Amino acid sequence: MTAERELIAGIRARTPRFGGGVRLGIGDDCAVLRPSSGHELVVTTDMLLEGRHFRREWHSPESVGHRCLARGLSDIAAMGARPMAAFLSVATPGELAGNGQAGWVERFLDGLLALAAEHKVTLAGGDTAESQGGVLADIVMMGEVPAGKALLRSGARAGDEIYVTGALGGAAAELARLERSARWKAETQKLARAEGEAHPHFFPQARIAAGQVLRRRGLATAMIDVSDGLSTDLDHLCEESKLGAEVDAAAVPVHALAVEAERRGWTDSGLGLALDGGEDYELLFTTRPGARVPKMIGGVAVRAIGRMLPANARKPRMVLRQVDGRLEPLKARGWEHFRRG
Amino acid sequence: MTAERELIAGIRARTPRFGGGVRLGIGDDCAVLRPSSGHELVVTTDMLLEGRHFRREWHSPESVGHRCLARGLSDIAAMGARPMAAFLSVATPGELAGNGQAGWVERFLDGLLALAAEHKVTLAGGDTAESQGGVLADIVMMGEVPAGKALLRSGARAGDEIYVTGALGGAAAELARLERSARWKAETQKLARAEGEAHPHFFPQARIAAGQVLRRRGLATAMIDVSDGLSTDLDHLCEESKLGAEVDAAAVPVHALAVEAERRGWTDSGLGLALDGGEDYELLFTTRPGARVPKMIGGVAVRAIGRMLPANARKPRMVLRQVDGRLEPLKARGWEHFRRG
Question: Is A44 within 8 Å of chain B by CB?
Fold first, then answer.
């Protein structure tokens, strides 16, 4: 058996099938999926590249596997959908394959499959290959949602209030610390899992429950996940809804790790990390003005941070209301991962 | 706008939406798909790597885009399904991005989208990134099939007859010629498209129509596409059906290009290319003994090449009956792309 077939056989042996949606998983030309009656499928794909989204000397293989699936899960959450199945394509340099149980690929799968099991996601197929330049993973996530009920980016209207789940900037703060502390780098390399939300960068939590509650209660008019950073993702929502937006700086929930990062000098501004740091995987959504929004949804705090404005070609699309009341343009400058200047 | 967003906006602008299955395409967190009533979805993913599956000095960008989609289409054909939507993730070296209309990525998309239009496949989403080591594309193809009717690899029984569509070894013969002729390499570099089946390696045709006819008529008991080579793909079918197989060497339809390759000395054996050369994208299927199989199905010739045998642990899984009647073991040694020798 070739190394590739061995790897696939290994994945197949350790992949349980959850729920009734996946009729046929790994082992044929295609997987076969049957959505529940009256439901539509939602599909998203995300690439994770070594050097751009992770570094082998910073991230444990388990963290890379977890983050790979978390990105897709977060897109499913942002539609208000229930996750069902994942497909994984992974290209790895020759030196990482075929190392047996302790190998990089096996530990990567450990991280990915642990998160998949938590959300009852079946790994239903994929592809493997040898890469010439570092690890590259492409994840396809599929979920289901009652027909016509998916929450889109395009549903907001002028006057709608803007909300966000959880706190922002924590993932970027962990990364800023990594860039400055060799000691902490050695620690994070060993992180194979994390309890709850202790490590928002290494083991992010997708807001699957909150997304479904928002969809079921009909509270959100539009929704997106904060994967590229609040400023960039709000810009996407504005673009698809053809609106502008105003954000209150004082209302933005800055993650405790971002506050700490500012205090310790790892960053100039904790608020900056919350606005532009990416990979928070929180949900950004809009509601009709005056809608009664609970303080907690699906186990996570939600907070009003601003409002949608009519589009105005003569003004900046987004503005930030400072604590002193001044308005300044809010630019989309979300996290470009490891490419910042 | 960043280069990545520009590329995505460009793809979105030139991607028509075919049919009613894709409710929402590029531009949100997820695409939304609604299969026809009473249907299931089939899903396959395939990676295409520079250096392994193609070389930029051999293949035009249009050929690479065509082949990328053809691989996925062929898997859909092998289930007897109708193709619906594709998702494309592509990582390219920095020097290939942002070259405007004449750039490599745009021409790659030309090839991919031309084939997609031919089969009414909507490009419904994807991801782009910069790679460190050559082009890497991952294609997800989705199709639909009446519930419970997908043709699997596992449905064959002992005594079933083995059939194959078209002729085999043509793609491998084109590749063998490439390795030997600098002049022809210069010609193939310019191939932007091919009429019909003139270039089975550069512009392969997936057997979508034949697959659906076989499913509708209830003729096939098991089916797989010949992507890795007849010997390897028949081995997969044997494995999933828990059987052995016997192939008649004299019955294997050797492609005219493979016959020519042997005559010109580009290969030792045209039959060898037909048995082990990959990327033919023909369909290999089994029928009940004595089933009446038309000579042409879905516009392509079909040919009986052998029969399924009971599994026997003391014998080789597959045997090849030579022209003189001798039986010898048939080993799965399908095309390893550019890794031979």
Answer: yes
